[in-house]
Amino acid sequence: MSYYNTLEQKLEGAAKDVLDDASSWSVTAYTGEDDEDLGTPRVVCIVDDAEEEQLGAGNWRVTLTVRYTSNADDVNAATHAANVEKMRDLFLDDAIAATLSAKDGEFHVLGVYGRSTSKGIDERNRFAQVSLELLAAPSNL
């Protein structure tokens, strides 16, 4: 597998591990594409896009998005908001680059360039997400 595909998968897996390892988090986490068949509540960790910085250098500017979804009929607004707060606390932490890097020795997050949050409701599903713009590199370069 090419290093850029591996990097994408490793970052998604590291984000999932951050959630799985957090004692405050109890919602099932997935990696890759979001899918309604996963049920709710759910959180999906996905690398939305990537662009190589200096062609051939192996450093990639990637957008990692962690999206929490809950059904308004099954999870009340207060519980949804509490889970959003927990998720944000995990991923908006200033040490997130080191935390992600520590999850797998086969890649390194060199820095965080930007962070954003969004939330809304779509067909009775509440959602909230955190997106991180990262500079990362596979360790095999």
Q: Main β-sheet: number of strands, strand sense, barrel status? A: 5 strands, mixed
Low-confidence stretches: none
What characteristic shape results from the CA principal axes? elongated
Strand order of the largest sheet: 1-2-3-5-4
How large is the radius of gyration?
15 Å
DSSP helical segment count: 3
**Approximately how much helix is present in the residues?**
25-40%
Number of strands: 5
How much of the sequence lies in strands comes to 35-45%
Q: Mean of the pLDDT scores?
A: 91
What structural class do helix, strand and pairing data support? alpha+beta
Spatial separation of the terminal alpha carbons: 14 Å
Order of helices and strands: HEEEHHEE
Keywords, separated by commas or semicolons:
3 helices, five-stranded mixed beta sheet, 41% strand
Describe the structure.
With 141 residues, the protein is of the alpha+beta class. The protein contains three helices and five strands. It has a five-stranded mixed sheet with strand order 1-2-3-5-4. It is elongated, with a radius of gyration of 15 Å. The model has no long low-confidence stretch (mean pLDDT 91).
Topology:
Elements: H1 3-21, E1 29-31, E2 42-53, E3 59-71, H2 77-91, H3 96-102, E4 107-122, E5 125-138
